[in-house]
Design a protein that fits this description.
- With 71 residues, the protein is mainly α.
- The radius of gyration is 16 Å and the shape is elongated.
């Protein structure tokens, strides 16, 4: 899943797959077959994104990186 795994929490904010076409197809089938659970994932992803990707959080992370670089 590469960097995607850092953004998506499987089963909470999305679905991850093992980088094969077959596994991707399986996850796509799961999404189509489970619309209510998929909506729950969408809702969870929105809550997570709003909490994680704020301007304040971005500034905090930049300050932390800057502090590490300048020490």
């Amino acid at each position: 899943a590469g960097g995607t795994g850092e953004l998506i929490q499987h089963g909470e904010t999305g679905r991850l797959y093992d980088e094969t076409a077959e596994d991707l197809a399986g996850e796509m089938r799961w999404v189509l077959d489970h619309p209510e659970q998929t909506q729950t994932l969408v809702d969870g992803a929105q809550v997570h994104a709003r909490a994680t990707f704020t301007n304040e959080e971005y500034a905090r992370r930049v300050r932390r990186v800057w502090a590490n670089v300048t020490e």
